[in-house]
Design brief:
elongated, alpha+beta, 4 strands, single chain, 3 domains, four-stranded mixed sheet
Length: 271
Amino acid sequence: MHAASREALTRVGDFLDRTIQADNSVTVAAQTGMELFEVVDILDNERSLRVAIADSSVDASQRAGIVDKLFGGKIAEPTLSVLKEAAATNWSTPRDLRNGLITLGRRALLRGAESQGQLVQVEEELFEVSRTLVREGKLTQLLSDRNAASSQRRGLLASVLYGKVTMFTEALALQAIGRPENNPIDDISGISSQAAQLRGRSVARVVTAAELNEDQQAKLAEKLGKIYGREMTVHTEVDPSLLGGAVIRVGDEVIDGSTRNKLDRMRAALA
């Protein structure tokens, strides 16, 4: 996303937060999120509309007016106000606007989870869903099939998640499968990271040879927080093939302190 679009997303994201907080309702947050996703579906099918409401050469009030005319009375007032704010803000490209609305829809659902006291749980559940997909290659392959209808892919994942996660986790995971950006694992993991960011935290993905207990995870989070200068959330998984130690990923940075890596380097030095 271009710089101007990142600024637009921040501005509209703050507006969305204020809109949801004004109602202080889990229902409003959930409805706003789901309706923003529905608007994205319409924009995906109507390129000319997507271009029109993202055209920065047109006055902002006119762009907001287009949105009001098309969606007024068809979506809830909080959703309409967020959509009009997005239309009145300058985005670098129509695609950035479309992607911004997806991020805003996710943000609304995450704010709903926060109001319900479930934001941490949703973050952890989304991460676990992404790890399940890593382990279940056949399922991931089916969910990645772009030739299958989005409803079919969503139905498949819904059958796996039913009764095992919160309604917010399920809604967020299903929308990601229905409108993929990269692959199911990265898309769902990315929403987990977005949840952490709303809590003012960065995510460290830690792979260890043996499972870490809660105390070990807390100490690792504290140590990483001192290294990176910000609060950290640690998401862990186990890979016995590491033999010992850990592999830590924070953003694009990878710290490989595993025994397997040390042995590989020793072999390379002796070759």
